[in-house]
Amino acid sequence: MAVNWNKNAAGRLVPDQVNGRHQHPYEGVAKYKPTGNKYGSPIVSCNDYPSDGNKIVPDLRVALLKAGLRDGVTISTHHHFRNGDLIAQQIFDIAHELGFRNLIWAPSASFDCHKTLIRYLEDGTIHHIEGSMNGALGEFTSMGKMKGIGILRSHGGRYQAIQDGELHIDIAVIAAPAADAFGNATGDRGPTACGLLGFALADSRFADRVIVVTDNLIPFPCVPWQIQGNDVDFVVIQEKIGLPEKIVSGTTEITKSPDRLFLADMTVHFCEEAGLIQDGFSFQTGAGGTSLAVAHYFAEKLREKQIKARFVRGGSNKFLVRMLEEGLTDYILDGQTFDLEGVRSMRENVNHVNTSPFTSYNYHGKGNFASMIDVAVLGATEIDINFNANVVTHSDGMLLHGIGGWQNCLFAKCTILPVPLFRDRIPVIRDEVTTICGPGELIDVIITERGIAINPLRTDLIERLKESNLPIRSIQSLKEEAKRICGRPEKASFTKNPVAVVKWVDGTLIDTIWQLDTE
Amino acid sequence: MAVNWNKNAAGRLVPDQVNGRHQHPYEGVAKYKPTGNKYGSPIVSCNDYPSDGNKIVPDLRVALLKAGLRDGVTISTHHHFRNGDLIAQQIFDIAHELGFRNLIWAPSASFDCHKTLIRYLEDGTIHHIEGSMNGALGEFTSMGKMKGIGILRSHGGRYQAIQDGELHIDIAVIAAPAADAFGNATGDRGPTACGLLGFALADSRFADRVIVVTDNLIPFPCVPWQIQGNDVDFVVIQEKIGLPEKIVSGTTEITKSPDRLFLADMTVHFCEEAGLIQDGFSFQTGAGGTSLAVAHYFAEKLREKQIKARFVRGGSNKFLVRMLEEGLTDYILDGQTFDLEGVRSMRENVNHVNTSPFTSYNYHGKGNFASMIDVAVLGATEIDINFNANVVTHSDGMLLHGIGGWQNCLFAKCTILPVPLFRDRIPVIRDEVTTICGPGELIDVIITERGIAINPLRTDLIERLKESNLPIRSIQSLKEEAKRICGRPEKASFTKNPVAVVKWVDGTLIDTIWQLDTE
C-alpha cells in the first residue's frame, strides 16, 4: 500500500502508515478521541505453569526460545539499569547467533551502552526500534541506515501504545535486582538495585511472554513485588544483570556553572512571584544539573516560608530524599531513581512511593498524575516563537535523544523551560523548531539568561507578573536577540526519506524525522 | 435457543448456556484449555477527565447515572465490609427509585445484611446474582424465586471470569475507607478501615466505569493506593460507607468446643507426622473457630521446633499477626483481614502484604500462589467417598454459602478438611454430595473425630503415615460409621428447575443447583 502524507494540526507532514501499520495524524491537544478496546493478551492457564511456582529455566537462550523467539517478533527491555544494562545486548547476541531476523526492539529508553546493537541493525537482526534512539543509535537512524522507521514515544505514550494494542510485545525481558522463582520481582534491593521497575509494568501486563532475569534470587515471596510473578513466564538467573557503577548514572551534583545556576535561581524566583510556591504545592524536575539546582532552591524556599510540598515527583535523587526526610514534602512519587540515596529511600521510606508510566503519564487512562502537578521544570533543544519545543533532534537535524517523560510532563499546571538563549552559538529560540515534540499551548514559560517569555495564552501569569522586576519579555524579542548574537540560524538539510516518527501522548503522529542530507 | 444438558467430567448434569450465554462443561482438573484473549475495557482518554484530578460528584445517584446506569447493566460491589456493607443497598435503592430493571448484581460475596435486596430480586430490579448467594439470598434462590440463574464463583474464578470477559462489569462501585479525589483508595486506614481492597482489583481494572465511595477523603495522594485512581471514573463522599462494628465479623476467638479443638489438634498432629511442618513451610486456614485453633497449634509447633514459616496466608487475624510479630513467619500474604489486629498489622508492618485474587487465586494467570502453599486447612458441608466435597449447599439441598477462596485453595500441596463425621445427626461423609464444588483428586486428607482418611491417590502420605498411631482409616469405613450412627442419609428432593450453577476455577460448569421440591 502506498504511503500517503498529510499535514497534521501542528503543520507537520506525517505518513498515514509506518512500518505497514495505519497511523493517525496529530489533531491538537485533547482533540483525538480513541475508539475500540484495550489490548487483552492471550488467556493462559495455570495448567501450563509449574504448580510449585518454580519457573527457572537454564539460561536466557532457553527462555527466549521457550517464549517463542522467531523472525519478526517484538522484544522489549527496560532502562532501569540505564547505561549499565547488560541484557539487551545478550538478547540480540542470542537472536543473531540463532539466525533470527527482522526483530523489533522496544526498549523503554536506550543509552550509550546500546550502541553495540548497531551491528544487528546493520545485519538485519533488528529491523527497527520503537522507543528511543539515543546518541549513536540516533545518528545511525538520522543517516537513514535503519531498515524500518523508528518510532519515538514518551514514557506515557509507550504505556498507552502497549495498552491500546498499538505496540504489541511478543516477548518482554525484565532485568530485576531481586526476584523469586515465581517471577515476583523488585528493584529497590540487591547488588544491582536500581530503584523501581515501573517502566516494565506495561510489558509485564500486556506482553504475550514475560521473562524475568535476575542476579539475586530470593526465596518466594519476593516482597515487595513491583512486577507480579503471575504475569511472568520464565525466570533466568545470571551472575550479573547490570553494571552497578553505571546503573545510577546522570548528573548527581548540582551544577557549578554560573549560567545554569542563574537559570535555576530565576526559575524559582519566577515561581515565587507567580504565587506557585504554596503550602501543599507539587513540582517535578528532571535529572540534569540545572534541575537539581531548581529542586535545591525550591527546598530553600519551602524552608524559608516554613511550608511544605504535598508531593514532589522523581526521578528522585539525594536532594529530593533530603526534602522528604527533612519534612519539606509529604511524599516523593517516584518514576525512576537517579542515585543510590533515591534507591535507599524508596526501600526504607513508605512515603517514597514507586509509580509507573500508567499512574504518572498514560494519556489513555482515567486521568494521570502529570496534569495534577503545579510546576514542571523541563529542558529543550529548541523552542519556536509559538512555544513549540523540540527534545529529540538538534538544530543540525541529528536525532540524539529520546522523549522520556517530557511530553507527559507538559500537562502540568505550569510548565517552565529554563534554557540558554543559545548553545555553541546556535540559537535555542528560533522561528521554527527542527522537530516538534511538544505543542506550544502546553508550554507556559521560557526562562533564559536574557529574559523570561510567558506564553500569551497564560494571561493569568502575565497578570500576576505584571509588576515584577523579573525581565519579562516577548518570545519574539528573545529570538531576535539570539539572532543578533548568533546570526540567522541555519536550517538542517534533509533528504525526502523519513527515518523516524514522533508520537504524541495519544498515539497520533506529531512529527516526522528525516534522513540527513549529507551531500 | 434451547438449552442442552450434558453430563460433565464430574458426572453432573450442566447446561450449555446460562442466562443466554454459552458455557463449557467441567472437563476435569487441569483439562480445559482456554482460548482467545483477555477482555480489554474501552480505551479512554485524559481528554474526558478533569486535569486537576478532582473526580468528586455530588452523590452516588449522580455517579451511577454518569456511569451509564440503565436497564440490564451489571453492577459489582465487594465484600470487604462484610456484614457491615452499606453500599449495595443504596445502589439498588437508587436503581429501583429510578425505575431501572433487570440489573445483574456481581458482588465478590454476599452477607446476611444483603437479605434486604430480596425485594429487588422479587420486583425485577435485580435479575440475578453472579457471585454468592448467602443465607436468605441462597434460600430465595433455592426456592426458585430468582428471575435469572445464579452463578457461583470462587474468589479466583471471579477474577478469571472478569479478566476473560466472561463476566462483563458495566459499573463497579468500590467502597473505600480512605481515598483521594482522584480515586486512589486504600482499605487499611480510616474510621471504617477493613484491611485491603484486593477483591475489587479485577473490577477496577476491567469494569467499564468505576465509582469509588469513601467516608474519608484525604488530600492527593492517598498512599498507599490499593486501587489506582487512574482506573476510577467518579468519587463519591458519604458520611458512612460501612458499619465499623460489623466490618470485622466472623469468629475471632479460638473455639472452646472440645470436639473442634480435638479436630484442630489432630490436624496439626497429622501434619507433623506427615513431615509437613518444616522450616520455611507455609499454610492457609480459614476464619472459623477450628481454623483459628489450627493456626494457634501450628504456631505452638513452630515455637517448639524453633523453626519458622516462610509465609502464612490470611484471612489474617490476631493469631497470625502474633506469629508475624513473634518471628514465627516471615510474611503474612493476606487476602482479607478478619479483625482489627489484622488491619493494624497490614497498615504498620511491611511484611504483612496485601494480595488479591489475581496473585492468589486466578487460574487463568501464569501460576498463582494457591498451589505453592504446603498445607491448606478448609471446611466442607459434605464429602463423598471419592473425596469430592461441597461447600455451597446443605444436605437438605438448600443453597446457603458462597464458595469464597475454597476451590482455589484446593490446589495446595496438601489440602486437609477437618470436619465432624456428622452434624445434627446428618452425616457429613456420604456416598454422594448434594453439590460438587471441589473434585476429590484435589482433596488429600479428611480428618474427623473418629478417624482420618487419606486420599488413595496420595500414596506418599499413606506411606509416611503407615507407622502412625493416628487413626488412619478408609473413607468408606468413616462413611459406614456415620451411617451406623445417623442412619442412611436422606437425599435432598429437587424439582427439574435449575436455579444456579457452580463454576470451577477455570470457568467451566462443575455442577448445577436445583430448585427445592417443597411439595
Describe the protein's architecture and organization.
The structure is a homodimer of 519-residue chains. Chain A contains 15 helices and 30 strands. In chain A, the strands form 7 sheets. In chain A, strands 5-14-13-10-6-7-8-9-29-30 form a 10-stranded mixed β-sheet. Chain A has a 9-stranded mixed β-sheet with strand order 18-17-16-15-19-22-26-27-28. With 519 residues, chain A is an alpha/beta fold. In chain A, strand 6, helix 2 (87-97) and strand 7 (103-107) form a beta-alpha-beta unit. The first copy, chain A, folds into 2 domains: 54-247, 3-Layer(aba) Sandwich (Glutaconate Coenzyme A-transferase), CATH 3.40.1080.10; 258-494, 3-Layer(aba) Sandwich (Glutaconate Coenzyme A-transferase), CATH 3.40.1080. At the A-B interface, loops of A face loops of B.
Considering the chains and any ligands shown, give keywords for the structure.
519 residues, 30 strands, ten-stranded mixed β-sheet, Glutaconate Coenzyme A-transferase, alpha/beta, homodimer, nine-stranded mixed β-sheet
